[in-house]
User: Which sequence fits this backbone?
């Protein structure tokens, strides 16, 4: 039994990439877990249900985005702001540790505006804003947010 423990450890220490070691497996070894490109990058898929229409989105691999994901599922009322974005108050402020000082959002971006502590989803282009932290992006269907007035939305994680 002792030899089975020493062999993988020795391979790890000596460099298991030697040609003779490639493909060799010990009994009971598990094959490597295959991950999608999103999982490899550390991103997270979410779903945004906008009054009967479901939009898929991807959260970035940042501390702020992970903090936002910890709030999900979340139902909010998105209000129109400046005919450019829909905004909603969040139940608490998000961490912005490690975030850049601001961001220049594109159409479809999901962001956190730290000075106000709110969620912002952009349906039109906008310029740089200090305190704006990008959380992710709507993959398709952002036009569902272009309707005037408030929209009730539910945001939830998509489990793999």
Assistant:
């Amino acid at each position: 039994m002792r030899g089975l423990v020493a062999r993988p450890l020795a391979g790890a220490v000596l460099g298991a990439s030697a040609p003779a070691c490639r493909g060799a497996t010990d009994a009971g070894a598990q094959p490597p877990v295959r991950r999608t490109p999103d999982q490899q990058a550390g991103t997270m898929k979410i779903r945004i249900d906008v009054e009967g229409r479901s939009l898929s989105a991807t959260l970035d691999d940042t501390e702020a985005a992970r903090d936002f994901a910890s709030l999900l599922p979340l139902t909010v009322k998105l209000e129109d702001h400046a005919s450019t974005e829909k905004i909603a108050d969040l139940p608490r402020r998000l961490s912005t540790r490690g975030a850049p000082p601001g961001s220049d959002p594109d159409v479809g971006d999901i962001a956190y505006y730290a000075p106000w502590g709110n969620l912002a989803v952009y349906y039109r282009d906008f310029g740089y804003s200090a305190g704006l932290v990008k959380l992710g992006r709507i993959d398709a269907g952002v036009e569902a947010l272009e309707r005037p007035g408030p929209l009730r939305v539910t945001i939830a994680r998509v489990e793999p």
